[in-house]
Amino acid sequence: MKLYYKPGACSLASHIALTEIGARHDIEQVDTKAGKTENGNDFSKINPNGYVPVLELADGQTISEGAAVLQYIGDSAPASGLTPPSGTMERVRVQQYLNYVGSELHKSFGPLFAETPPEGAAKEAALKGIARRFDYIESLLSDGRDFLVGSSFTVADAYAFVVSNWANFTGIGLDAWPNVKAYVDRIAARPAVQTAMKAEGLI
Q: Of 134, 161, 150, 140, which Cα lies nearest the Cα of 17?
């Protein structure tokens, strides 16, 4: 398998998941602005939408969209527990949180990563939107659970970790959400997370 990624982007979640299951894989960095991979390939031919992650399988098929890639990775290694069995409430919760992170938390950071970042009232509105999403995750973790779905690390945690960690380099920080901060620190210490982040030059 090959993962097309951008350092520190949401594709890091897929990189973490691949590392967690011990899957043999290659990685190829993408310059999404230029639309080129590090090997000089036209990325639009790999993903016409122009963004990461994309997982290329051994038979040449590709999977895009982070939540789909993450579930495929987890399902490819059932014993890992990264995705609970289909039909269980635990699986439903993983899908619920994957969708929440993707459609709410991830998207709320969009304005801060725009080519022209917002200022003034627009920036304040963006920050309030991010805070509201973190408030929800803070409330989930307030019952003492280690991960989003209880005591087991899943692909939803890989995604939530990556996006939550963006607060640490956008000037927001996580001090206002102590449960989220402890959660991010806990996941950051996982060996697979350290390995993936080092491979992407993040630490």
A: 161
